[in-house]
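2024-03-11 09:14:02 DEBUG pipeline.ingest accepted 1 chain
2024-03-11 09:14:02 DEBUG pipeline.ingest length=171
2024-03-11 09:14:03 DEBUG pipeline.predict start
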Amino acid sequence: MAAVPREESAPKKAARLDLFKFVPFRLNRLAAEVSSALSVEYAARYGLDIPEWRVLATLGFRHDACSAQYIAHCTRTHKSTISRAVTSLLKQQIIERVENEDDRREFRLRLTRKGAALYEELIPRLLRKEQEILSCLSAQERRDFARLLGKIEEGLDLVQTSEEADAKEAY
């Protein structure tokens, strides 16, 4: 009887994924934590939740009205979540629907005066919070971090500037 080599007879140990070293897990956890930290700035004072903020922020940086589908794609938020946020913001008169001149069956969304004022009021608060979150990094580390995020975004073929996003009809 031939001897079976030891490595073939021993059961293989299943690979173990250390989530705390797995970049997708780390990025997701970091994004959730940063979103939560930023939400402190708009939740208590303005009653907005994270999806509502995402709609407001997307419409705020755009020069033109856009579709809810664009917002869902841009923010990587499920369309049903964006739909609920849009409904809530419409009721609060923070956003409004406008007819799409190219396709009258479709409505686009834009900020109302109230929504634009809210957006303008929130921006300095959120920028301060961003600086607070990044304060653990040196100025050079912040630049490096931004550059490295850009490389990953580029590798995933993601839009990287407001101008690029604004120019896209269907993000």
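2024-03-11 09:14:41 DEBUG pipeline.report The longest strand covers residues 103-111.
2024-03-11 09:14:41 DEBUG pipeline.predict end
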